[in-house]
Structures are given as structure tokens and as C-alpha cells.
């Protein structure tokens, strides 16, 4: 399976500081020993699964060409929105998240549908590729 060259790191907006050489680890990344990333296709579900308590997050676009030697694609067992068990490959960085790996940054907002209380995240046009 061919993997994309662009992946995404979702972070609490308060954690990001592009003026430093390495970005701080999230609690989950520190606990697991690697940096969790998502592909463009996986990003919306990652947000719905792990960031429901947030109304805004920062999404970092990472060019894997810059960090390829530290990335492992690992299979993760998930349950999709229909209750089916699926296995997906997720990219993980085993090493620091250097600011130089970040090619673009987006502030992403959650919109909640008042009719059914469902939510979705709004990205800038052409950010997810």
C-alpha cells in the first residue's frame, strides 16, 4: 500500500509554538512513546474521536519527506461509525516533532448541528490533501 507524503498532527492550540525548534509532546504522545499522526482521510475521524471537548484545535501539516526515517506506519484496530471493526494504517513519528517538519498550520473550528447535536470540523480550503 502506498502512503501519502503529507500527514497531519492535531494539537491543542495552546501547545503550539513555532518559535521553538521542537514541539512539545501531548500527554498521549508522551505516554505512548511516539507522535500520533493522521492522513487527510483519517483527520476528521481523529478529531471526532479524540477532540470532542475542544471547539478549536491547531492542525499541523507534516511533509514526510523531511522525517521519513523516523516514521512508522502501524496498523490500528478501530470501530467505524457503523460499528464495524476495521484496521487502518496510521503514521507515527518515533522521535521529536521538529518545527522544520511543519509545512503549514491551520486553526480548525468545530461546528455543531443544533438539530441532531452532531459535529464536524471546518478546515481551510485545500488544506487537507
From TrEMBL:
Name of the protein described by the UniProt record: DUF952 domain-containing protein
Classification via InterPro entries: DUF952
Natural source organism: Zancudomyces culisetae (Gut fungus)
Regions crossing the membrane: none
Gene3D superfamilies for this protein: Protein of unknown function DUF952 (3.20.170.20)
Signal peptide span: none
Alphabetical list of Pfam families matching this protein: DUF952
